[in-house]
């Protein structure tokens, strides 16, 4: 059985399972998620930096997801490629992704279903060192009771191609779309605040025209926003801060946002 081993355990998050679980439990406990509606949660957008930086923002989304842990049985996880030059989208051949908290089983049937779609290629190299997907897994392992994973690394891809992947796999009854993306990078604190507020407005308005300087996961986000706009879904901001608010200095910051998509 082929397993994708963790690449950033001990770097972006603790490699000791007890410490990792304690850190996640603390982040979830401290998270403020006042927003709740009766409609099922369809999708989330979460950041993917080291937990000390983006963990508090991500936790606001995962705390919300925890309320639906008995319903969600599959997570379609899309995040940007940081290590490999990639055009289109990459899916893996392995059967499990491993973290210090254990193994996550991949939905191989779902991967086969999207393998033939335009822009999708099988490339384990795009997954081997990619952190944007990996850092989400311990959170998912904590808040969900039992789930399978469909991991997709997204390079330069047309929003329609990304939307088609989501449309093919989206089952509102038991499937969550999870997009991993940070916001602005390495701007002064006040400049980043203004830039990220504008990006948040575009996300809330379901405008699928984000650029790389606005969000590193812009290609995944644009696919999600295109689908949401076509279906008349609503995007709600759960949290929006930057590294100057969490654990870094304010000279050059990275922006983080968490967002929820509802019917």
- Assign an overall shape: globular
CATH superfamily: LigB-like
What's the number of extended β-strand segments?
12
Query: In percent, how helical is the residue content?
Result: 25-40%
Supply the CATH architecture: 3-Layer(aba) Sandwich
Low-confidence stretches: none
- Tell me the series of helices and strands, N- to C-terminal: EHEHEEEEHEHHHEHEEHHEHE
Report the average pLDDT across residues. 95
Whole-number radius of gyration? 17 Å
How would you describe this structure to a colleague?
- With 263 residues, the chain is an alpha/beta fold.
- The protein has one domain: Protocatechuate 4,5-dioxygenase, Chain B (3-Layer(aba) Sandwich).
- 37% of the residues lie in helices and 24% in strands.
- Strands 2, 3, 4, 7, 8, 9, 10, 11 and 12 form a nine-stranded mixed β-sheet that branches. Strands 1-5-6 form a three-stranded mixed β-sheet.
- A hairpin with a 2-residue loop joins strand 5 and strand 6.
- Helix 1 crosses helix 2 and helix 7 crosses helix 9.
- 49% of the residues are buried.
- The mean pLDDT is 95.
